[in-house]
Amino acid sequence: MKKPQNKQKVFILSLINFLVIIFFIVVYYLPEKWSLAGWKDFLHRIERVSLNLRYGIFAARGGSLTAEGMAQRQATQSEFYRLIYLVSVDEESIKEYKSYPLPSSVWISVLDHFLQQEPTRRPRSLFFNIPFYEKPDPQFAKKLEGYPIPIGMDFRLEDTGEYPDYESDDAQAMKAFEIPFPYPEVLSHYSSYIAPPSDYTRNTTYLGYLNLEGEEDVMYKVPLFASVTYKKGDTLTNVVYPSAVLMMVLAYTGVRPETVKILPNKVILPQAQLKEKTMDIVIPVDKHYRMRIHYKSQGQYQYLRNISLKDIFRAGLPRQTLLIFGVRSEGTAANKFASPMGSMFSADHLAYGVGTILNREFLSDVPWWIELVIIISWLIILQIMILRGLKTTIFALVLALLLPLGIGITLFKFGWIFATFLPLIAGIFYLIVGEVYILITEEREKRLIKNTFSRYVSPDLVNILVEDPSLVQLGGVEREVTMLFSDIRGFTTLSEGMKPTELIEFLNVYLSQMTDIVLETRGSLDKYIGDAIVAFWGAPLPLEDHALQACTAAVRMVEKLKEFNANLIREGKQPINIGIGLNTGVITVGNIGSQKKKNYTAIGEPMILTEELQDENKTYKTNIIMSEFTYQKVKDKVIVRELDLYPYLDRYVRIYELLGIV
């Protein structure tokens, strides 16, 4: 059976990598109309879990903010959230006014209350997220007309398929709030709406629709503009309206709707007045002019300031506030929607949308092609790591779990949304499949080498068996011995560059020289495991200085390696390096096997540590590592360098580099 060449491994792993990229990556970025048996939707659903997790990680913690407890969040809240107040029609307010919907006299008294305040103490803007769909009250309509504080109301867009008449009284009352838009074809389209009475919309300062958009009923974005189709005579015409979020920001910052600049992937609010500053606010949007809302809290925790409507008359509000009146009572209105942070009332969604803009805490999606390049590069790095060996593969697995999450969380902190679970799942899947392939091929190679060399046994055993035939029986005895485990570094790669005859000759020369050292120091050769040598001192012949003899053998092996490498270099071949592990402990030694085939060998837990120490030479860039158990027996006769505390089973073992014999 011919060993697979390294180029073949690279090719197979590259092919697996390509298939993973096609399946996970390309499927994820397919056009929206394609799903491929639901895989696209499944991957996006998984990614939304990751996005919700990032929202949750950065969620505000702390108790609900009332008028009395607002100061507790001053140090942590973003600047303009301190000026956004939710005035809630809650259950206590409904009990106070003994009806729902509330009579318009309540709203008239609220407006009168603000008029009684000094102009500098009045709110900067009022917005009613209240369903004013009942018969209009002329007194309330008159109160709205010419009110000195900007007042806004919302309406709800629907897609019933029945187009409203553009010449109707309601449509004409909303005409003042239409907005010119250069790319109406990219916007979300609706066929109808539910708006407040025209008596109110004619007199209100600004008007915007309430609708948000999301995936699987979870609201992530607010479309800043949307199109409504009207009947205009015998034809249909589309009219663009702004969202309530955008209109609240325009009213608060003093930006006129007609001055808003609409550019590809961004909306600019020029000369916005934010406290004492004047600036252009640049809002990043997607191709449908939707802005991601930066939600700030979850569950029972409230980032927003909340005042019960019944307490508004005695609440001491700071200057320049934006008041959003909304219903916050379960069962009174269908105004609760899911967000990445849990279910929220519509006023909460609107407030977070406004806060996102005023605080310029925007969330932007990393362009898909950049994501694709990064993820493909990441999978190529994993392929390189898996080719470097099992330990590197284990490290790669840890990275595959932690790095995408770390990158996703870090980028979110800086306002970027990057696909996180996608590279995590794709990377782990690739590592599992790739490592299974590596293990299958390398196991086949190891088996070939073991079958070739397992027949060799120590000559010392022959002499003992001649003198004491009883040792041929199955069984064993416990004996304190010093064990040695030696292995050639990078042997699999080295062997792939040799012809079979060259490999046999190479191993014969190397193993013969190293085995001679074991036998010359009165050690017993346990076995060859491919290129590895396993030996022990102290059995079957008792040996008082077994630890020193094992250390001597290890040092001589390293010295012999220099001669061996010098010959390789003279022949124009690549020199090799070895790692040796030494450990002392009580093991079971004996002749183990069947009646037809027996092998004198050692069994016991200390053998495992010996092999691990051999492997750790790669970590510490050494040739010989001994455990503290061996060092205690030879500490006056050897030269060592203390390396580390090595975790083994339920304890730490001190390990040393063996440099020489005194």
UniProtKB/TrEMBL annotation:
CDD domains reported for this sequence? CHD
- Report the SUPFAM superfamilies cross-referenced here: Nucleotide cyclase
**Which GO terms fall under biological process for this protein?**
cAMP biosynthetic process; intracellular signal transduction
Q: Kindly give the SMART domains that the UniProt entry links to this protein.
A: CHASE2, CYCc
Q: Which residues cross the membrane?
A: 12-30, 368-387, 394-412, 418-440
Q: Which residues form the Guanylate cyclase domain?
A: 482-614
Q: Which UniProt keywords apply?
A: Membrane, Transmembrane, Transmembrane helix
Q: In terms of domain of life, where is this protein from?
A: Bacteria
Annotated GO MF terms: adenylate cyclase activity
Listed Pfam families:
CHASE2, Guanylate_cyc
Extract the InterPro entries matched here: A/G_cyclase (IPR001054), Adenylyl/Guanylyl_Cyclase_3/4 (IPR050697), CHASE2 (IPR007890), Nucleotide_cyclase (IPR029787)
Q: Which PANTHER family does this entry report, sorted A to Z?
A: ADENYLATE CYCLASE, TERMINAL-DIFFERENTIATION SPECIFIC, ADENYLATE CYCLASE, TERMINAL-DIFFERENTIATION SPECIFIC-RELATED
| The name this protein goes by in its record | Adenylate/guanylate cyclase domain-containing protein
Its taxonomic placement starts with:
Bacteria, Pseudomonadati, Spirochaetota, Spirochaetia, Brevinematales
